[in-house]
Design goal:
single chain, 260 residues, alpha+beta, 8-stranded antiparallel sheet
Length: 260
C-alpha cells in the first residue's frame, strides 16, 4: 500500500513543467539567498570549497561547486579503482543468478539497466557497487581509473528520487531513470561499466570531459541534483577493498577496488 501510494504521488509531480520549474528556481539569482541555510542544514564543509558563498551566483551554482585542488587526494596505484564521487556506499556484491543484483530488496536486471542483453552478458556473474550521493555531497564526477571510453550512451526519459524512500518504494529507479553509461576499457582484457543515474525529476548529467581517454581522478562531469553511481565489473576482475562496507561514507579519490 505504501509503495503504491508513493509511486502515484511521485508520478503526479514528475512532469516536464515541474522539472523545468525546479531547474529555473535553482538557477535563478534569487536562489542565491538560500545558499547559507542550505549549507547549514546539510553541514557542508565550506573550508573545502573553491569559492566563498558570496561568489556563487545561484543555489545551482553552489550545488555543482568545485573543491580546492588538494582536498581530495587520489590513490594513484595503477591497480586501484578510486571512488568517482563523494557518496555513501549503498550496496555492493556479486551479480547473482547470471545477471541480477539487489538494492533495498528490489531485484535489478543488468539487461534493463544497460538496455541490452548483449551488453549485460559481459558482466554476468561479476560484481557491482552502488554509490548514493545525498544533497550534502560534492556532486562533481571523476574518473575511477585510467582508461579508454569505448562506448557512451544515454537511456531513460524521467528521473525519480533515488533517496532511501525512492529506492525502497519507487519503480526500480536505478534501472528506469535517465542514465548515462560509460564503458571504460582499463587494460587489454577488461572493461567496466560506469553508470551515472539522474534523480529528483531532473535529467541533468553534464559531461565536462568529452575525450575518449580518461585519467584517474580527473573531472569528467557533474550531477545537477542528488544522484547515484553504479559500477559493474566482469567476473573475477576486481576485489573490493576493506573500507567497502554497506552504509560507509567514501570520498572521491579513495580506493574501493583492486584489480585481480
Amino acid at each position: 500500500m505504501k509503495e503504491k501510494l508513493y509511486q502515484n504521488l511521485i508520478e503526479l509531480s514528475n512532469g516536464k513543467f515541474s522539472s523545468k520549474m525546479l531547474q529555473t528556481v535553482a538557477q535563478s539569482r534569487i536562489s542565491k539567498s538560500f545558499i547559507k541555510s542550505y549549507s547549514n542544514i546539510y553541514g557542508i564543509n565550506l573550508s573545502e570549497v573553491s569559492k566563498s558563498q558570496q561568489q556563487f551566483t545561484s543555489l545551482h551554482d553552489f550545488f555543482v561547486r568545485e573543491l580546492k585542488a588538494d582536498v581530495r587526494p587520489v590513490d594513484n596505484r595503477p591497480t586501484i579503482f578510486t571512488s568517482p564521487v563523494d557518496a555513501k556506499i549503498e550496496v555492493f556484491g556479486k551479480i547473482t543468478d547470471g545477471m541480477m543484483f539487489t538494492v533495498k530488496n528490489k531485484p535489478y536486471s543488468l539487461a534493463a539497466l544497460l538496455g541490452s542483453t548483449k551488453q549485460a552478458k559481459r558482466y554476468e556473474d561479476g560484481t557491482y557497487i552502488v554509490f548514493y550521493l545525498s544533497p550534502a555531497d560534492y556532486h562533481r564526477i571523476h574518473s575511477p581509473i585510467n582508461g579508454q571510453i569505448t562506448r557512451q550512451y544515454v537511456l531513460g526519459q524521467k528521473s525519480y528520487p533515488v533517496n532511501q524512500m525512492g529506492l525502497e518504494y519507487g519503480k526500480k529507479p536505478i534501472s528506469h531513470n535517465y542514465r548515462m553509461i560509460s564503458e571504460i576499457k582499463y587494460d587489454d582484457q577488461h572493461q567496466a561499466a560506469f553508470i551515472k543515474v539522474g534523480a529528483t525529476f531532473v535529467n541533468s548529467i553534464e559531461l565536462t570531459n568529452t575525450t575518449s581517454n580518461w585519467k584517474k581522478g580527473e573531472e569528467v562531469g557533474y550531477f545537477t541534483f542528488g544522484s547515484t553511481v553504479v559500477m559493474l565489473f566482469e567476473r573475477e576482475a576486481v576485489t573490493f577493498c576493506e573500507n567497502v562496507t554497506q552504509g560507509a561514507k567514501i570520498k572521491m579519490g579513495e580506493a574501493f577496488a583492486t584489480m585481480l
